[in-house]
Amino acid sequence: MADIDTWAVDLAEVGAVYPFQGSEVIMVVIVMVLWVVWHVAQISSEQRKEREEVARFNSRDDIKDKLE
Amino acid sequence: MGNNLDALTTVFTEFYYWVSIPLMFLIHVGFCMYEVGASRRKNHMHTLMKNTMIIPLVTTTFFLFGWWIYWAFPNGPFINGGLDLASGEANLPWSPTMGTNLEDRITGVFWAAFLLFSWTAASIVSGSVIERITSGAFWILAVVIGSMAWIIDASWGWHYAGWMVVKLGYHDAYASGVIHAIAGGFALGVLAVLGPRLGKFRADGTPRNIDPHNPWMVCVGLFIIYAGFWGFYMACNVPLISPEGIGGQITGETWTATTIYLTPTTLGAITVNFLLSLSGGMMAAYLVSGGNAFWTYSGGLAGIITASAGNDLYHPMQAFLIGGAGTVCAYKLHFFVERKFKIDDAVGAVAVHGYAGFIGLVICGFVLWGYPSSPYEGYAAINPLGQLAGAVIMFFGLGFLPGFIVAGLLKGMGILRIPREIELLGLDFSEAEEAEAAAEDVRAATRDLMK
Question: Is the ipTM of this complex over 0.90?
Answer without folding.
Answer: yes
